[in-house]
């Protein structure tokens, strides 16, 4: 879990473009494998940006389809109403090929959609209506080069004949807190099964049932996972359920409604994938600051929409930028075609 890949039981994953930097997370290992040329493509799971953020940090393409478009059967669930499988690749063609091979209903996953999968032709999409979140670009903590890079692409798209207009962000400052309340609540439930009795690590030194439960989970979970389990258990507790979990569910509905309404006006939404390029190992120690790395990615998970991160340039520090395109639910064919022809 987390946006840096510093929480693995196997040690930190290093960014192949600069080993002193993180590859992003949580699917940073898959992103690093593709970026290093170890594999042609790889799969990740995207709960709040865990495919797209590592793609941005490693200069690869990271694609999160619509929630329910690809089966989650076989995935260890983190947050079941957010998790979605998707590919990393170097080209849109490879991304589309992997997506096409996986998309569709699976009787082993009741959350997969029965909606027919639209063929991905990657044909030129014509002139598009594109919205962008101006408010997000003006928030504190944005790297000025990230903002300038996006603005340059906005100007280019306008010059190419596309309609590009600013769009109000639905509850921008509430998106990350809403995501972390709901995702940690689901994680605390999903990870309860890993108790050393039937699933997960079992402590070799435990004596008795109580110690087996306590030591197996203490030894088997790292600090970030423990933090999220504790937070999720807290927001689900009797005294705080309505104040936190119930309220977050209501905010999620508002965000989804605003997002779907935006796609009545626009074909795509354009944003940076991340507020900065890859940061150094150990550079961010404040959990809240780490969570804010997801400021542009969590909306697609809250709303269940497809989104893709594309490498579109290089910062003065030598590291890649990622630009994110988001489309309406089940508009993967349009999104992938736009990704191929716009960038």
Write the layout of secondary structure elements.
Elements: H1 28-35, E1 42-46, H2 52-58, E2 61-64, E3 84-89, H3 92-102, E4 129-132, H4 134-137, H5 144-159, E5 163-166, H6 172-190, H7 209-220, H8 223-236, H9 241-265, E6 268-272, H10 287-291, H11 298-303, E7 307-314, E8 320-326, H12 332-342
Parallel strand pairs: 4-5, 4-6
Antiparallel strand pairs: 1-3, 2-3, 2-7, 6-8, 7-8
Provide an overview of this structure.
The protein has twelve helices and eight strands. The longest helix is centred in the C-terminal third of the chain and has 25 residues, at 241-265. A hairpin with a 5-residue loop joins strand 7 (307-314) and strand 8. The protein is globular. The protein has helices at residues 28-35, 52-58, 92-102, 134-137, 144-159, 172-190, 209-220, 223-236, 241-265, 287-291, 298-303, 332-342, and strands spanning 42-46, 61-64, 84-89, 129-132, 163-166, 268-272, 307-314, 320-326. It has a domain at 28-168 and 267-342: Amidase signature (AS) enzymes. An eight-stranded mixed beta sheet has the order 1-3-2-7-8-6-4-5, sandwiched between helices. The chain has 343 residues and is an alpha+beta fold. The two termini are 30 Å apart. The model has no long low-confidence stretch (mean pLDDT 95).
In a nutshell, what does this entry contain?
This protein has 343 residues and is α+β, with helices and mostly antiparallel strands. The protein is 40% helix and 13% strand.
């Amino acid at each position: 879990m987390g946006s840096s890949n510093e929480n693995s039981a196997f040690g930190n994953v290093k960014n192949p473009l600069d080993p002193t930097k993180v590859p992003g997370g949580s699917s940073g290992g898959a992103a690093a494998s593709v970026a290093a040329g170890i594999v042609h493509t790889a799969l990740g799971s995207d709960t709040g940006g865990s495919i797209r953020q590592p793609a941005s940090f490693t200069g690869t393409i990271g694609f999160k389809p619509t929630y329910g478009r690809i089966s989650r059967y076989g995935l260890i669930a983190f947050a079941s109403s957010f998790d979605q499988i998707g590919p990393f690749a170097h080209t849109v063609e490879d991304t589309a090929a992997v997506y096409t091979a996986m998309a569709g209903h699976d009787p082993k996953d009741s959350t997969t959609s029965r909606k027919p999968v639209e063929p991905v032709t990657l044909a030129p999409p014509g002139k598009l209506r594109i919205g962008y979140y101006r408010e997000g670009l003006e928030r504190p903590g944005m790297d000025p080069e990230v903002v300038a890079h996006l603005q340059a692409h906005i100007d280019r798209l306008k010059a190419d004949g596309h309609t590009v207009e600013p769009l109000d962000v639905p509850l921008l400052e509430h998106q990350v807190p809403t995501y972390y309340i709901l995702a940690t609540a689901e994680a605390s439930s999903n990870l309860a099964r890993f108790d050393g009795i039937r699933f997960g690590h079992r402590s070799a030194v435990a004596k008795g049932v109580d110690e087996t439960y306590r030591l197996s989970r203490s030894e088997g979970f790292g600090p970030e996972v423990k933090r999220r389990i504790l937070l999720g258990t807290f927001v689900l507790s009797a005294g705080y359920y309505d104040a936190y979990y119930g309220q977050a569910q209501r905010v999620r509905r508002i965000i989804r409604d605003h997002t779907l309404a935006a796609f009545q006006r626009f074909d795509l939404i354009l944003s940076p994938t991340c507020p900065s390029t890859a940061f150094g190992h150990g550079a961010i120690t404040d959990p809240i600051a780490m969570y804010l790395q997801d400021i542009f990615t969590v909306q697609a998970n809250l709303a269940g929409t497809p989104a893709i991160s594309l490498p579109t340039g290089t910062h003065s520090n030598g590291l890649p930028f990622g630009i994110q395109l988001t489309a309406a639910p089940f508009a993967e064919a349009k999104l992938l075609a736009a990704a191929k022809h716009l960038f």
